[in-house]
Amino acid sequence: MTDHKLLEVIEKAIREESESARGLRIGVDSLLVEDLGLDSLDMVAIVLKLEDQLQVDIGVHEIKNFRSVADLLELLERHYGTSAAA
User: Fold this and answer.
1) Does residue 30 lie within any of the structural domains?
2) Which of 4, 11, 26, 36 would disulfide-bridge 21, Cβ 3.0–4.6 Å?
3) Residue 62 pLDDT more than 80?
C-alpha cells in the first residue's frame, strides 16, 4: 500500500470519527489535537477503525505517542514495511 493510499485511509477515518475535523484540511503535517481538535475518545475510535480497515494491530498504549497525522502514517508504514508499498 502506498503512502498516498495510507494517508487517504487515515484522513477518511478521522473525518468519519470526528465531527470537528470534517470541515478541516487534513494533511500529513496536521496536528491531531491542536489542528484537528481530536480528543482521546476520537483517537481510540480512529485507531480501532484503522485496525479494522487495514487488518493491523495498533496497541492502545501507542495512542499517546500520536501527535500528528505523520505519526499515524509512520506507524502504518512500519506495518507494511519501510516503503509502505504492497
Assistant:
1) yes
2) 36
3) yes
